[in-house]
Design a protein that fits this description.
Length: about 725
């Protein structure tokens, strides 16, 4: 029998353990019972409202010393406002019907979500029936053993939209090695599949996964199953793909047992093969798509540059990250670049149903405002040197060079006053390319060739113009070239670049042009959806439009720590913008490619280098316009510009020390302004002025080092 000393030692050890808090739902109940707002509680804890929200929905837990203070408060409230009765947990009872029914396990404090179907609505609601074709094994929802139910149920609050009963369990699930498929809103499904074909059958017939179309003329989103390393091994796949090339370019060989199983079960793989993002499908029958998207985490399906920290998260948290992205952007179908391109097509479907006048039948027809269903050859100056249009025609007339800024000021042009300033401060424009896509008119038809046309800023296209005679202050980059140097003669420019030369007061006389007669704001719905996703996700991280500039800078310093999951969503949204624009001019990939041969990307209607050029041209012109206005308002000149980041000399370590403000305290229009919206600026980095000058003397761009080498509009995967 244990001695008194041993028992006391055990009790003392328990007392010394980290204090335990009540479940998140109980924390919220106690605060509301006390009549205290989240803002008031945040002030008492010396924290933020968003952090308190995270405590009450299970996204994060307080750390010492805030943990002990919070527990003391909750214990005091619990003594004053005890719960009247502990909730009972109903036992899941099979439905008395031949169709399998998902049994609901009550989740604490459910949050409304666009993907919360009837089965996720609450313990008192009836579960939604699975499709009639489902086999006898029921789909069950259960609390997973590896994480508390409260943690799994935590989800970002989103505006509730109309629910689609066809997809009661949301757009995706993350499958672990124990057969648990973690979905959105804390749903956990039992997946009995032991092979890839069985997983595909279960997904289509039993899981209740998928997403409704984003446009009435579009297609429903195929379900996504994300495989952890353990799940991949259980299904007979290698844990990793190994090879000399980058892992994301690898595929399983055709003689691999898993590939043979897929083929034997009469399923097909796309031309991309069985890689990190594998699509398995059968031809549609009776208008019903049969397609499942797989993403294999251990094969680097989620690039850590764009999904930071996600692959190290628990399956339930991965489902939360991808679920929010799917709800706000699109269900991932590949890299963020691929998803950006897919979103363009989903928001502007190429076809719609039209009635044939002669037969009266409904047939597929062109959807006005879209890029159509067939690829279109670019004008020779819009293409790349290896494009068949260029190689086959022998074109030697030059090419568009509309790229983002990579400019650094000559160190000899620094004034003595600038050299005495102690800091170099980097400002980054939020999603600058997304802001440039707003109300951007682009060509929708094939290009027509014109000689000596009169310039019209309303017509999208490519113009051969001589802008070399235009003088620009050498302390600013030239608005006409990516490296900021003065043009040396006639060159091809996109409409926005030529229009800006005209805006600066210069007469332009195009030598020739390739213009498009049919035009439209093709990217508008793409822009609107991504802008909303970006602003909503920043708001989840505590960065909102109503913050003052000082509060905004403080919030931006902390936003990644507030919720790493939502920070990963924000990173993915930004990468979707840049990658989507970049893939409009995807270059050939692979050593086997030969110049003049078409590459797979050219078969897409969305291979449109002219649209990419229009976005980048407008973004670069917008940047130069702000630089020019800053000179007029403050007399300040930039040290360097890289893409959407500009570095200024500053007397202090904050942009508030040099940005232009009116006497009323409001920011001056026309220059750089702080804020969370696309096109507005945020602090990107602070260094000493000596550091910046040293880089400039070495011919290096300070903005690149402040941003950590942030990539500009990538054209690949």
């Amino acid at each position: 029998m244990a001695s008194q000393e041993e028992l006391f030692a055990n009790i003392d050890a328990l007392l010394e353990e980290e204090p335990q808090l009540p479940p998140p739902a109980e924390r919220a109940r106690l605060r509301e019972a006390a009549g205290i707002t989240q803002a008031r509680l945040a002030a008492a804890l010396k924290s933020t409202v968003q952090t308190v929200k995270n405590y009450e929905n299970g996204r994060s837990e307080p750390k010492s010393p805030r943990l002990e203070a919070y527990q003391r408060l909750l214990n005091g409230w619990a003594a004053k406002y005890p719960a009247h009765a502990a909730p009972t947990v109903p036992t899941a009872v099979p439905q008395p019907t031949a169709v399998p029914q998902p049994t609901a396990v009550p989740q604490p404090a459910p949050v409304p979500d666009a993907f919360a179907g009837p089965a996720a609505a609450g313990a008192g609601d009836k579960a939604a029936p699975a499709p009639a074709a489902a086999p006898a094994r029921p789909v069950t929802r259960r609390a997973a053993s590896r994480r508390p139910a409260e943690k799994k149920a935590a989800t970002t609050a989103v505006k509730a939209t109309a629910l689609d009963p066809r997809f009661p369990h949301g757009p995706l699930a993350v499958l672990d090695g124990d057969g648990c498929a973690y979905g959105v809103n804390g749903i956990v499904l039992d997946c009995p599949a032991a092979t890839v074909p069985q997983l595909v059958e279960w997904t289509l017939k039993e899981s209740g996964l998928g997403s409704p179309r984003l446009h009435r003329n579009g297609k429903d989103g195929d379900p996504l199953i994300v495989l952890t390393a353990a799940a991949a091994v259980k299904l007979g796949l290698p844990e990793r793909l190994e090879g000399h090339e980058q892992r994301r370019s690898l595929r399983l060989p055709e003689d691999h047992p898993a590939v043979k199983q897929v083929v034997k079960a009469k399923w097909q793989l796309t031309q991309r093969g069985f890689g990190p993002w594998a699509r398995i499908y059968r031809k549609a029958t009776a208008g019903q798509r049969q397609c499942v998207q797989l993403a294999i985490l251990s094969w680097d399906a989620l690039d850590a540059r764009f999904w930071p920290g996600v692959t190290e998260m628990e399956p339930a948290e991965i489902a939360r990250v991808l679920g929010v992205y799917a709800q706000r952007v699109i269900t991932p179908r590949g890299s963020t670049a691929v998803s950006g391109l897919e979103l363009m097509t989903a928001m502007r479907p190429p076809t719609r149903a039209v009635q044939d006048r002669e037969s009266g039948n409904w047939v597929s027809g062109h959807n006005p405002g879209s890029l159509g269903s067939q690829p279109m050859d670019p004008a020779p100056p819009e293409a790349t040197p290896e494009h068949p249009v260029v190689v086959n025609s022998g074109w030697t007339g030059g090419f568009l060079n509309e790229e983002a800024y990579q400019w650094v000021r000559d160190v000899d042009l620094l004034s003595d006053e600038e050299c005495t300033l102690p800091f170099a401060v980097g400002l980054d424009l939020n999603t600058a390319f997304l802001a440039a896509a707003a109300r951007l008119v682009v060509g929708l038809s094939a290009p027509d060739h014109f000689h000596a046309p009169a310039f019209n800023p309303k017509i999208p296209g490519s113009w051969l113009v001589d802008l070399s005679q235009i003088d620009v202050d050498p302390r600013l980059p030239s608005p006409f070239t990516p490296d900021g140097t003065r043009p040396t003669g006639p060159a091809w420019y996109e409409t926005h670049t030529v229009a800006y030369a005209q805006e600066l007061g210069h007469n332009v006389h195009p030598i020739e042009a390739y213009l498009r007669r049919e035009t439209g704001a093709y990217l508008d719905p793409w822009h609107d959806r991504l802008k909303t996703a970006y602003i909503d996700t920043l708001a989840d991280l505590g960065v909102t439009k109503d913050l003052t500039d000082t509060e905004f800078l403080t919030a931006m310093e902390q936003h990644k720590q507030n919720d790493p999951a939502m920070a990963a969503v924000l990173s993915a949204i930004k990468a979707t913008v840049k990658g989507g624009v970049g893939k409009l001019r995807e270059r050939p990939q692979g050593k086997a490619y030969k110049e003049g041969e078409p590459w797979p990307a050219l078969a897409r209607p969305t291979w449109r280098p002219d649209i990419r050029a229009a976005v980048i041209s407008k973004a670069r012109v917008n940047m130069h316009r702000k630089l020019n206005n800053m000179v007029k308002m403050t007399g300040l000149y930039p040290l360097a510009v890289l893409s959407d980041c500009v570095v200024y000399p500053s007397p202090g370590d904050s942009p508030l020390d040099f940005l232009p403000y009116a006497a009323s305290g409001k920011p001056q229009p026309g220059g750089f302004r702080l804020g969370p919206s696309p096109g507005l600026a945020k602090l990107e980095g602070v260094q000493s002025m000596l550091w910046a000058v040293d880089l400039m003397e070495k011919g290096l761009n300070p903005a690149r080092h402040i941003k950590g080498g942030d990539a500009v509009v990538d054209e690949g995967e």
